[in-house]
Amino acid sequence: MDNKFNSSYKIKSQALGIKDISLEKREVAMYLSHFGNIDSDADMLVKGCFKKSLQEKGVDANSNRKIAFLRYHDWQMPIGKFTRLEEDDNGLFAVGQLGTSTLGNDALMDYQEEVIREHSIGFKYVQDKIKWIEDASMDKGGYYLISEVALWEGSAVTFGANELTPVIQVSKGENKVDVIHDISKELEVIFKSIANGKGSDERLYQLEMKHKFLTSQLQELAMMNSHNPKEIIITPPVPEFTEKGFDWNKVINNIK
User: What's the confidence (pLDDT) of residue 184?
Assistant: First the structure.
């Protein structure tokens, strides 16, 4: 069996959009996983793979160890609870209710401002529920059919499963201009969220860290296929602030 199945705790993320947000109810509807597609781990999750976990630790289960709603897969960062967890033909559908703690309030603002746009699951493979399917047309010669996993938690994440996705996409032939445009748009969202100054110091720190990461991605893209990468400097886009007297340096200093 592949070495990847030896790990007791795995994280799997897909670019799944948020279905709906209710600010009054503090609820977010989402898909935590999709069925039927082969992901970057050569895994295909199929309908029914979460059935046992939902029975044992789902919303209506008697267990006091329910499937958790976390931030960044950190068990010290619960942001609320799931009020719905169910499999449909598309995947694992969930409705999470955000708590009134600082972590919950920060997450609610991040959802509202589109800082959080993806989700991941934390799980364990079940050894006898993995089947290798040969397919000569695929690069890896086939894929793993996953009929059951032990689901522990669903997390709101700032980045997807692979934090170097933009650079990897370009290296595989993606249009560099399009990727730079997408990163630039995301940087504008981050700038505006920091400028609003709402939330805890931890939230503002996380936003600053995301800004640093995205800026580094632009630099990586600039250096690709360049003969003089050290001479290339990319300046992150300046957000369209029109407020008189706006002091960006003051905002940065306030979150240090």
Answer: 84
Residues 32 and 76 in one domain: yes
Residue 81 has pLDDT above 80, yes or no: yes
Q: How far is CA 210 from CA 72, 117, 232, in A?
A: 13, 13, 22
Tell me the whole-structure pTM to 2 decimals. 0.70
Give the tokens for residue 231.
Answer: 């001479």
**Confidence band of 165 (pLDDT split at 50, 70, 90):** very low
pLDDT at 197: 87
Residue 109 tokens, joined: 């603002």
Q: What is the separation, in whole angstroms, between the first and last Cα of the chain?
A: 47
Distance CA 185, CA 239 (A): 9
Total domains in the fold of the chain: 2
Spatial separation of the C-alpha atoms in residues 187 and 125, rounded to whole Å: 36
Q: Are residues 185 and 96 in the same domain?
A: no
Together in a domain, 132 and 221: no
Co-location of 8 and 107 in the same domain: yes
Clarify whether residues 153 and 182 are in a common domain: no
Find the mean pLDDT for residues 17-39: 89
Segments forming the whole domain that contains residue 199: 165-254
